Amino acid sequence: MSADTATTDCPDHTWDSLPEDMYIDTYGVRFAVLPTPDGGELYLTEHGWALRHHLVPENWYTDKQYATVGTRLDVGTATLYRVPISYKGRDEEFVTRFSRFGQDLPPVLNEFPDHLDRDVVSSAAFNDPFQEFSLIADLRHGAYGPPGVRMLTKRPLGIYVPSKRFPKWQLTRKESLVRNANLSLDDDFACHPQSHHIHIDPQRDYITIYGWIKGMDAQDACEAGLIVTSEMMALSIRVETDLARKGFYVVDNKPRHFIVRQRADGSMLRDRNGRLIYALIDFELLCRTDEYKAYIETQRAECRAGELGYWYCGDCIERASRQA
């Protein structure tokens, strides 16, 4: 059977009953690894495992380059596709995004908010896909910071790495950034030896897969007259404040990156205090604050040898949050 007609083998095991050698733990996130017929790899989170039969690349990806179903989204400089699926009798969707890790920030992203520290701006870089999933898992877990602040996000489902390799000039990834990412992965692997070892290949695509969130971004809601400009700006400040309280910031935080929802009666979905309910959807430039990093490093010093990887350790973060 050729790679064009072969299908990815998806075991019928539940997540917790998978053979141990199918798992790989990277920066505190557990993936199940599925080899794909083209020689690539599909890394699925626990969320993604439940949708594995839909997420296998032969259902939405062909020619090793382009999505075959769904709609390409016009959302600035990134390459995203919105893909429909049917799950347990329900129509759902997921969104794929080609990782820009290691590439220069587009000029439109170089205009950061004035209040950001100059060092933060000068060092801004896209997260590698495994780092991105670690950060969002930490943010969703929410152990650090006030327990009353809960960050809603799209669900991280998986990372697909097609086998096709491109000339280095075509993907334009900086060797220094790739090298540093692989050194960090090596450090994490040294702390958690296992059968699989992830290595970022600068000549391959990395496609992140997330659950789709229904609604519209705050800027579209404002332009449609559903919220006024002052409320959109207040929401931007609130998102930034909520992130900071949980130990994070997004370098290019903006209304396009948070989703709000309209009720059936036309009103906007709000909490009991009348505030807009929002969900975050962009994590390429998600970072931990210096304060949060310091808490993790403090716990790292007290952690038993080998328990903490690059940044993330669930036990350490839980301990840090109790002491915050």
Task: Describe, in plain words, how this protein is organized in 3D.
The longest helix is centred in the middle third of the chain and has 17 residues, at 175-191. Helix content is 29%, strand content 19%. The chain contains 10 helices and 15 strands. The protein has one domain (15-308). Strand 2 (29-35) and strand 3 (41-44) form a beta hairpin. Helix 9 (290-302) crosses helix 10 (314-323). The strands form 4 sheets. Strands 1-2-3-9-10-8-7-6 form an 8-stranded antiparallel sheet. A 3-stranded antiparallel sheet has the order 11-13-14. The protein has helices at residues 46-49, 52-55, 118-122, 129-141, 168-171, 175-191, 218-223, 229-245, 290-302, 314-323; strands at 23-26, 29-35, 41-44, 61-62, 66-67, 71-73, 80-87, 90-98, 156-161, 207-211, 216-217, 248-250, 258-260, 279-280, 286-288. Mean pLDDT is 82; it is low at 304-324.
Q: Give the count of structural domains.
A: 1
Helix content: 25-40%
- Shape label: globular
Structural class: alpha+beta
How much β-strand is present in the residues? 15-25%
End-to-end CA span: 57 Å
List keywords for this structure.
eight-stranded antiparallel sheet, disordered C terminus, 29% helix, single chain, 10 helices, 324 residues, three-stranded antiparallel sheet, 15 strands, alpha+beta
